[in-house]
Design a protein that fits this description.
Elements: E1 31-36, E2 45-50, H1 53-65, H2 70-79, H3 84-97, E3 100-108, E4 112-119, E5 125-132, E6 140-147, H4 171-187, E7 193-199, E8 202-209, E9 211-213, E10 218-219, E11 226-227, H5 232-245, H6 255-258, H7 265-270, H8 273-277, H9 289-293, H10 302-305, H11 326-340, H12 344-356, E12 377-379, E13 385-387, E14 403-404, H13 406-417, H14 424-431, E15 434-441, E16 444-451, E17 456-462, H15 468-484
Antiparallel strand pairs: 1-2, 3-4, 4-5, 5-6, 7-8, 7-17, 9-10, 11-14, 12-13, 15-16, 16-17
């Protein structure tokens, strides 16, 4: 099982918000105590966590995570349905964060919980959420981490006085702050990649820092292609809605209508396209023992991913739960291929990338010679940055792993909101006023935001571990808020 480690945005498509029925009230909930290590490393601070499957899982995770010990994390994930890759990702985040201090529970349900936490390094704040399966042994379905404001922080109303250092910004001031912020991230080696900010579809800031190849000392450039992680899921979503517009699909179609030979017959009969899009299918992930045992050079097509998970039983009744599912988006890719009569890669290249003018976007194969392609760098257990080449399949998929540039992603947002990819009705349906997507994996982090009301688009692409890009995008949003509040 691959767990999503980072969301940067409040309305993510790739990571999906916690389910709408997640209770915000903790009244009457029994509490379990979790030790919260203090700055000195002692466990003298306590916080009450709900005595629910999700609350218990969160407590166990934080205790394991704050040890910073790889073997402890491996044991935790084995017991909770995960694998060693999950533990290695946790170690990378531990080295970035120095551990987490839990401040408060912000939302809680039986199978999902969200807390506000502070990183020990740099004292940044994050929203930390865990989702578990609806049945014992309550395996972890996903872990989500997103930047958050410190407790009690409030936005400044128009016309109100500002705190020292929080004055309203001009656009020139925004650019000055962006450069200073990026300089700091380069100095502490927390970011490597490209940052672009556009206003009314025109770039007002572009900058590349760090190295695309440490082996050959090749710098990142604005034109460098970066792995997008799960941002590709949004391209898949657009493709599905294109086929719906063409009358070839319906959200209520069962998987078996288009994939009659799908290995899990229950899934074929019960899971709909809408379940797949909304992460309510109960289908699991393609990451796991089968993926680990498969030579990565053999995973080059959508059909190569299906045997890694399609025969597994559903984790819950479709529509009755929500769990992040890379497998579900592989199934969507297979449906696109069947309905369109061509490979997923050809379909999105012709119907999305070409229409939008995205000439430097594709699911490039890792062993092909592709100019201006960034190598991803993750931290090993000792904290040293190493190439992520052995963590990736030979080619990305409808669930993620394609590449793009900042310029191409800006072109995508422009084409989408101008109804060049979908009709007006479907465009409104999937944008709902804005767009926020992100992706993250070892050596991969990307964030794309478009605020149609404010007119700003933020694109941050990184070849470092999460939260390298999403931290930067969060800081940019705070600066943009100060510009938008300018009288």
């Amino acid at each position: 099982m691959k767990l999503l480690r980072l969301n940067a945005l409040s309305f993510l498509i790739c990571a999906f918000a916690l389910s709408a029925d997640l209770s915000s009230s903790l009244a009457g909930a029994q509490s379990a105590q979790i030790s919260k290590p203090s700055a000195t490393g002692t466990e003298d601070e306590m916080i009450g966590l709900p005595d629910t499957p999700a609350g218990k899982a969160l407590g166990e995770f934080i205790r394991a995570f704050n040890t910073g010990d790889l073997e402890t994390l491996k044991r935790f994930h084995r017991e909770r349905g995960g694998d060693e890759e999950n533990a290695r990702q946790d170690i990378g985040f531990y080295q970035e964060s120095g551990g987490l201090r839990i401040h408060s529970v912000t939302r809680s349900g039986q199978f999902e919980i969200e807390v506000l936490a502070q990183m020990k390094k740099g004292e940044r704040w994050v929203s930390f959420a865990i989702g578990v399966g609806p049945q014992a042994p309550y395996e972890i379905a996903d872990i989500r981490i997103s930047p958050a404001s410190a407790p009690g922080a409030k936005s400044v109303a128009r016309g109100a006085s500002t705190e020292p250092g929080k004055e309203k910004l001009s656009e020139a001031g925004l650019i000055e702050r962006l450069n200073a912020m990026i300089n700091k991230s380069v100095a502490d080696d927390s970011f490597s990649g490209v940052v672009m900010v556009a206003k009314d579809d025109k770039p007002i800031f572009q900058r590349a820092v760090g190295l695309a190849s440490k082996s050959y000392n090749v710098p990142n450039r604005v034109e460098t292609k970066f792995n997008l992680g799960s941002i590709n899921k949004f391209f898949t979503k657009v493709a599905i809605f294109q086929l719906i517009e063409q009358g070839k699909l319906s959200l209520d179609d069962a998987v078996g209508k288009h994939l009659p030979d799908y290995l899990n017959k229950e899934a074929a009969e019960k899971v709909t396209i809408n379940h797949l899009l909304d992460m309510q299918s109960g289908i699991g992930d393609f990451f796991g023992p089968k993926f680990d045992a498969t030579p990565k050079n053999r995973i080059r097509a959508i059909k190569d991913y299906l045997p890694l998970f399609a025969d597994q039983p559903l984790k819950f009744e479709p529509g009755m739960g929500r769990a992040y599912s890379n497998g579900g988006y592989i199934v969507l890719g297979a449906i696109i291929e069947k309905v369109a009569g061509q490979s997923y890669y050809d379909y999105v290249r012709e119907r999305i990338f070409k229409r939008a003018g995205m000439e430097n976007t594709d699911s490039y194969e890792v062993d092909a010679i592709t100019p201006d392609l960034a190598t991803g760098y993750t931290r090993d257990s000792s904290g040293v940055r190493v190439s992520n080449v052995y963590t990736k399949p030979a080619r990305g998929s409808s669930a993620g792993g394609g590449y793009s540039t900042a310029e191409d992603l800006l072109k995508f947002t422009i084409a989408l909101k101008n109804n060049k990819l979908l009709g007006a009705d479907q465009t409104r349906r999937i944008l709902q006023g804005g767009l926020g997507v992100a992706g993250g994996a070892p050596g991969i982090n990307a964030a794309l935001e478009m605020d149609r009301r404010g007119g700003y688009t933020v694109i941050v692409l990184s070849n470092y571990d999460p939260p390298s890009a999403t931290d930067v995008s969060q800081q940019i949003r705070k600066l943009i808020d100060r510009v938008n509040n300018k009288e």
